[in-house]
Design a protein that fits this description.
This is Molecular chaperone. Keywords: Chaperone. With 204 residues, the protein is mainly α. The chain has 10 helices and no strands. It has helices at residues 16-32, 37-44, 53-67, 70-82, 93-98, 104-115, 131-143, 152-162, 167-176, 183-203. The radius of gyration is 16 Å and the shape is globular.
Length: 204
């Protein structure tokens, strides 16, 4: 789990890459499971500064965490992402790319993860195309010391291949849900961040 208090939106020479990795890690944590009260309180006490779209979206998440209670967030998480039968909001890439779970996009993802030397841990219950898992892979590709696999080219290829085609649709679905209260600003932060990533990769 990344430290929410370490997330700062700074210039390249002041740790932009660290901030990117931290934000991917935080999104992974918030989307994989309901956050603990400790994490909510930690984010709620994080620094807020700046007027960019990304910084304002971050400020909204900080405000939401400051007012949030663990049990209410847990109930919302289960209502949105678990539910009975089909979840209200799907967090799996295969669903958006093919219309079904466990389809060809997941098989292709597993092949690419293997080439990166990565595989799902035995204690992880979600498939690899879960948005939280993909965010965690991006965090690794940014923060790892593995110069062979963890570099800007690898980040761009992985993001464009396995995330770009559907993550905004996922964020929009979550942001539009009438049942999303805590997760509405989380979805907005994710959407804005992914849009920034797309713009940066396009200019690379």
């Amino acid at each position: 789990m990344t430290s929410a208090q370490s997330i700062k939106f700074e210039s390249q020479d002041q740790g932009e890459e660290t901030a990117r990795a931290d934000l991917y890690g935080l999104l992974a944590t918030l989307l994989y499971a309901p956050p603990s009260q400790t994490l909510l309180d930690t984010i709620g006490s994080a620094a807020v500064q700046g007027e960019s779209v990304l910084e304002l979206a971050w400020a909204d998440v900080v405000a939401a965490c400051k007012a949030a209670q663990q049990e209410a967030v847990r109930e919302e998480y289960e209502l949105l992402f678990v539910g009975v039968g089909k979840p209200e909001v799907m967090l799996y890439g295969s669903f958006y790319l093919s219309g079904f779970l466990m389809e060809k996009p997941l098989a292709e993802l597993r092949t690419d993860l293997s080439l990166l030397g990565l595989q799902r841990s035995d204690d992880v219950v979600e498939s690899e195309d879960h948005l939280a898992s993909l965010c965690e892979v991006m965090r690794y590709l940014i923060a790892s010391d593995d110069v062979v696999h963890a570099n800007l080219a690898a980040q761009e290829k992985f993001f464009n291949t396995h995330m770009r085609g559907w993550v905004l649709d996922c964020c929009n679905a979550l942001e539009a849900s009438s049942n999303a209260r805590f997760y509405k600003p989380v979805a907005r932060l994710a959407r804005v961040f992914f849009e920034v990533e797309m713009q940066a990769f396009d200019m690379a």
